[in-house]
Specification:
485 residues, five-stranded mixed sheet, globular
């Protein structure tokens, strides 16, 4: 559904396809003056959606300057920058999931840096219409997308209350495909902050349209990894998860050939140190009381089960093309070190900041440049203690299960993710105990079995697998609820 006002400033003719290329940054220790300028997305040329098939050029040669012995570029490579458009000025940005945790923090960052970023499009589910309208007005967004068509009259009324008389309202897109449409609109960078596997279609649309993708929606990579890898050009994806933004920055210290292992840190969630027996009676309120991060309820419960960490292990494998047996998880309760890279010479490079998602968001939007004062820094005049513990795989089996489905590949990660989403909702509704989340997910994964090999994954395959997993998870949770009644 589209509600399109008169275009602002220009006629309806769509701009020509922007120039795209991947460029190689200076190797560690080289002259940084080889980096080119930021890109500009020609803000305001059209309020109409634009999808272009122009393909970027691949970077020539390995980023370190070596001529032999290096593998092909990984999906995310800090040595490469993909510029959708050439020129100076602020980057035009589309924010998907603008009323959620990632979206609101991204908007805070944009508003504090108007010389660097400007938002042209927003998308949200539709549960916080007043906030969405306020965001559109403050940011002067050209397009607002909302998944729920039933809230369009309310959204239009809220916008009219904020805009002056005669001032044109932003274009409104509505429906299940609205976020996908705005993800392909004319912009430099798309920040995908949507929660859940519904973020896959917008991820694919942004990549196919040639946008730089700042990816906070880990589920789209989990369920559609081969699809994402088939579309993404070198340097086109910048990870926004705090752990993967940390790995991304640490990997800039060397080459992939020099990496011994990736070390993904976990806070341990609210139940660190508890045994599996201890977890049998925890409540929803207990699970939502995360000791470090303020996040949405699904992500917070995923952090309590450590499913979130399991997804991040799969994501690290897909982003950086590092084998699963070289990706380690350690518990770090303070959440100061967001992840580490161990190199073959014995050096470990850690990325550390106080817990604040605005730092990773700034990496996603600004790379290869850093955004000054994006997030708080440490006060080194104060004493602090940083601790690291091994992961208790008996109490938290989710990480090993995630490794298993990641190695199975195909539709197995989609089954794992979809079953988990259903089980989290059942737990929140009181139909499933906390330990029942992973017990049920494990059973669904086992019943799914090994995905058939020899065929390429398609979107239809993913959707079919998800539908089956959700149905089976609901059946199993209903049986559990009946047995507990």
């Amino acid at each position: 559904m589209s509600d399109s006002p008169a275009p602002r400033g220009h006629g309806p003719e769509a701009p020509s396809a922007p120039r795209r290329h991947a460029r190689t940054l200076a190797a560690p220790g080289a002259d940084p003056s080889t980096s080119s300028t930021r890109a500009d997305a020609r803000h305001g040329e059209s309020t109409h959606l634009l999808a272009t098939s122009a393909a970027p050029q691949r970077a020539q040669g390995p980023p370190s300057g070596r001529t032999t012995g290096l593998p092909a570029p990984a999906l995310a490579d800090p040595h490469l920058v993909y510029d959708p458009l050439a020129g100076d000025g602020p980057k035009d940005v589309v924010i998907l999931g603008s009323t959620g945790s990632i979206g609101t923090q991204a908007i805070d960052l944009v508003l504090r840096n108007p010389d660097r970023f400007r938002v042209t499009g927003l998308s949200a589910n539709g549960g916080r219409v007043a906030l969405l309208a306020e965001q559109a007005h403050r940011l002067k967004a050209r397009t607002v997308a909302v998944a729920r068509e039933d809230v369009v009259p309310q959204l239009r009324e809220a916008l009219r209350g904020l805009y002056g008389t005669g001032e044109p309202l932003p274009e409104i897109l509505a429906g299940a495909d609205a976020a996908t449409q705005v993800a392909a609109s004319d912009a430099h960078t798309v920040l995908n902050g949507i929660t859940g596997s519904i973020g896959l279609a917008p991820t694919l649309a942004a990549l196919e349209a040639g946008r730089t993708l700042a990816l906070a929606n880990k589920e789209s990579l989990i369920v559609g990894g081969p699809l994402v890898k088939a579309l993404a050009k070198p340097g086109q994806i910048i990870p926004v998860d705090s752990e993967h933004a940390a790995l991304f920055q640490a990997l800039a210290s060397g080459t992939r050939a020099d990496v011994r292992k990736l070390v993904v840190t976990a806070s341990g969630g609210p139940f660190r140190g508890r045994t599996k027996a201890d977890l049998a009676q925890v409540t929803v309120e207990d699970a939502l009381a995360h000791p470090t991060w303020a996040m949405g309820p699904v992500i917070t419960i995923n952090s309590a089960t450590l499913v979130n960490k399991g997804l991040e292990v799969i994501e690290a494998h897909l982003l950086y093309d590092i084998p699963f047996d070289r990706i380690e998880v350690v518990v770090h309760p303070q959440s100061y070190v967001h992840s580490m890279v161990e190199f073959t010479d014995g050096s470990t490079i850690a990325q550390a900041t106080p817990p604040d998602m605005r730092g990773p968001i700034a990496i996603g939007l600004g790379w290869p440049e850093r955004v000054p004062d994006a997030a708080p820094a440490f006060d080194w005049s104060k004493a602090s203690t940083w601790e690291f513990f091994p992961l208790d795989n008996d109490a938290f089996p989710s990480v090993n299960l995630a490794r298993h489905v990641g190695q199975l590949a195909g539709t197995a990660p989609a089954v794992f993710n979809a079953a988990n989403e259903e089980c989290v909702e059942a737990f929140r509704a009181g139909a499933l105990p906390f330990n029942g989340i992973m017990e049920t997910v494990t059973r669904v994964v086992d019943e799914h079995g090994t995905p058939r090999g020899g065929t390429s994954l398609t979107v239809a395959d993913v959707l079919e697998a998800e539908t089956w997993a959700r149905t089976r998870a609901r059946e199993l949770t209903a049986q559990t609820a009946e047995a507990r009644a």
